TrEMBL record:
Keywords: Hydrolase, Membrane, Protease, Transmembrane, Transmembrane helix. This is Putative Zn-dependent protease. InterPro entries: Zn_peptidase_2. GO terms for molecular function: peptidase activity. The keyword Transmembrane helix applies. GO terms for biological process: proteolysis. The chain crosses the membrane at residues 6-22, 122-140, 146-166, 195-222. It holds the Pfam family Zn_peptidase_2. PANTHER family: MEMBRANE PROTEASE YUGP-RELATED (PTHR36434). It comes from the Bacteria.
């Protein structure tokens, strides 16, 4: 069976994504069993860093599940999963600090985050229509629809790429916060890097998959146009 080179790259990216998800869960579980020397919970960590950055009005809430942690920019709320909110582990401190990193980005109007927020309504619309346009264009050989689908899909790809500096910056802030506040010791930094580093790879893999898929669609579009002409 013959595989197109782009198909192979997409498969590789999917493989990286599966590996990254496995590493995220594995590292979170591993470092959830190691208590941080400060004895702080994830909730206490988040509250302390928020207050240190003047974000007294940003609440910290608990949400059900595992690895469901996020910062909600609309309500300006840090939401932590139960193992992070109540946990006193290196993993809990690391994840909590990462989500606070997004809150601080929001306060400082960090460029990539601002752009990401502005793009979200557009991406929310175009990503819902793009699959229909792409499928219809392929099946009916309507290359104008296919081209429009590619254009709409490109917004989702751009969104994925913009997410990378947002996430890497939040992780860098997280490490600086918890070291500066003495919430972990230098010898515990390895655990922080493992937890946050694995999470970063999930975003890298998602971006790779999107980019390779976009290139594949463009190549098919160009090939179809050449055959038609």
């Amino acid at each position: 069976m013959f595989f197109h080179p782009m198909d192979i790259l997409i498969f590789i990216a999917f493989g990286i994504s599966l590996w990254a998800q496995f590493k995220v869960r594995g590292n979170f579980q591993r470092w959830s069993g190691v208590e941080a020397s400060s004895g702080y919970t994830g909730a206490e960590t988040a509250r302390r860093i928020l207050d240190q950055n003047g974000l007294y009005d940003v609440p910290v809430e608990v949400v059900p599940g595992t690895l469901t942690d996020h910062y909600d920019p609309i309500s300006r709320t840090v939401r932590l999963s139960e193992p992070v909110y109540y946990g006193r582990s290196i993993a809990a401190v690391s994840v909590a600090a990462h989500e606070v990193g997004h809150a601080v980005q929001h306060k400082e109007a960090y460029g990539a985050l601002v752009l990401r927020h502005r793009m979200f309504p557009i991406v929310n619309f175009t990503s819902g229509i793009a699959p229909f346009l792409l499928l219809t264009g392929f099946l009916l050989k309507q290359f104008s629809l296919l081209g429009l689908g590619i254009l709409f899909f490109s917004f989702a790809v751009a969104f994925q790429l913009i997410t990378l500096p947002v996430e890497f910056n939040a992780s860098a802030r997280a490490k600086n916060f918890i070291l500066a506040e003495g919430l972990i010791r230098n010898e515990e930094e390895r655990g922080v890097n493992k937890v946050l580093g694995a999470a970063a790879w999930t975003y890298v893999a998602a971006a790779l998959i999107s980019v390779f898929e976009l290139i594949n669609f463009i190549l098919l579009f160009l090939q179809g146009n050449n055959e038609e002409n």
